[in-house]
Amino acid sequence: MSEDQPRLACLLTPQRNTQYADLVAQLALPELQMSPLGALIVHAETRAIAGLPFLVLTLSQTPSDEQLVHLGELSMTRGFFWLDHPTGEARDMVLRPIHIAPPRGLPDGLLYARRYKGKTNEDLTRFLLNVARFASNFVQAPRPLDVLDPLCGGGTSLFAALSAGHNAYGIDHARRDVESTASFLRQFLIQAGIRHQIREERLRQLGRRWTFTIEGPDGPLTCVLAHGDTRAAGDLLSGLRPHLIVGDLPYGIQHKGAVLDLLTSGLPVWARMLRPGGGLALAWDATRLPREEMLAAALQAAPDMEFLDTAPWNDLTHAVDRVIKRRDVLTGRRRGLQADDRR
Ligand SMILES: C[S@@+](CC[C@H](N)C(=O)[O-])C[C@H]1O[C@@H](n2cnc3c(N)ncnc32)[C@H](O)[C@@H]1O
User: Fold this and answer.
1) Does 127 share its domain with 22?
2) Engineered SS bond to 7: which of 77, 83, 179, 341, CB 3.0-4.6 Å?
3) Which domain, by its residues, includes 19?
4) Given phi > 0 = left and psi -120 to 50 = alpha, else beta, which region is 50?
5) H-run or E-run covering 291
6) Model confidence pLDDT, tens digit, residues 110-149
7) What is the whole-number distance in angstroms between the Cα of residue 338 and the centre of ligand 1?
8) In 3D, which of 174, 145, 1, 7 has the Cα closest to residue 73?
9) In a 3-state reduction of DSSP, which class is residue 258?
């Protein structure tokens, strides 16, 4: 490490709850390592500056503007500064703010406003979206990408996608969840004065579907909510070829067999829909179902996918609460396109 190497101070995303503060501290560095800035990181340390927790990175060189732009989308760090010591004294430091425009999408109040039991933490959801994108060949592709959550519940990942300027598609078999999510989205758009149209359809023997066409800041955005079984995803959302798939597998299932069943019957369908080069990130409770078993099942269920099992991709376990002591993230990419291919 040399004194000339640029140092980037990244403020850890503030959390209301100490339990989530631990999660942020654990996942902040892997998220940066997975991002296009990752190749430049030569050293990382956490440090309190003015009483606030920062991750300080020493970089091999100054990043390009194309690399820096990705900071605006990170979930576990928010607020970035160049850190200098003009007099050489450690205590004498200057923080120069880095001005990065966040991605243009729907207001992120959409993501944070609603509270309900079983909601996946919002920042963790944004993290999953980034993991899938960084694993994919669509990191630099123009927006909107198409994002599918095949287990969308109350729609946290759909709202994370819309607020990042992407199209969002979700499926859940809990009818009340899908209906209340559709009505929340409608209310939110009305209150925020955002123009939109809604089409509601009944799909014979499959379920129901709400299609929102929303006036986004840079053009129309689509959000589709489908009520039905995720194993029929190909029919519920026929024609959809998502760039990214993001999901949080169900908790509270006593037997790991139930999660494995869902994975072995759902993943082949989801993987077939995913575009070549598309990325997938699924969170699951690894307390009962260890990573090796999850990986083995995934490899068998989706031979067209490669699963990323080297650091930092295999280093994402974190505690959620006293019950879910170990959640992990399975990351994959559909084979087919080379790293520089675009849509
Ligand atoms: C952990 S929750 C997802 C929570 C969601 N991320 C949120 O923040 O609201 C898992 C979801 O999977 C759904 N699910 C489980 N099995 C399913 C199936 N076979 N088809 C569709 N949805 C299913 C459940 O109804 C539940 O909403």
Assistant:
1) no
2) 83
3) 7-97
4) left
5) helix 291-301
6) 999 999 999 999 999 999 999 999 999 999 999 999 999 9
7) 32
8) 145
9) helix
